[in-house]
C-alpha cells in the first residue's frame, strides 16, 4: 500500500526583517527543502501593517518540519 504524502503547508516561522526571512529561506532551499515567503509584498507596500498581519511568513510542507529544525540548528539559527 502506498502511503499518502503530507502536502499540508504550514508557517514555519514569522519574521519582521525581510532580509533575515530570505537568508533562512535560502539556507533551507540549499538543503533541498522546498519553501516560500508569504506576505512580503504587503509589508513592502504598507510597512505599518507589519504587526497587524504577523510579519513575513516562511512556509514549508509539514512533512519537512523536523528537517528544517535540524538544518537551522546545525547553523545555530534556532535556539532551544
Automatic annotation (TrEMBL):
Residue ranges of domain DUF2007 in the record: 17-74
One Pfam family hit: DUF2007
Database matches in InterPro entries: DUF2007, N-reg_PII-like_a/b
Superkingdom field: Bacteria
Family matches, as SUPFAM superfamilies: GlnB-like
Record's protein name: DUF2007 domain-containing protein
Amino acid at each position: 500500500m502506498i502511503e499518502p504524502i503530507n502536502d499540508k503547508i504550514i508557517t514555519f516561522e514569522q519574521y519582521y526583517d525581510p532580509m533575515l526571512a530570505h537568508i533562512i529561506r535560502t539556507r533551507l532551499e540549499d538543503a533541498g527543502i522546498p519553501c516560500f515567503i508569504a506576505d512580503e509584498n504587503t509589508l513592502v507596500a504598507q510597512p505599518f501593517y507589519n504587526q497587524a498581519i504577523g510579519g513575513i511568513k516562511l512556509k514549508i510542507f509539514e512533512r519537512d518540519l523536523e528537517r528544517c529544525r535540524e538544518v537551522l540548528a546545525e547553523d545555530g539559527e534556532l535556539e532551544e
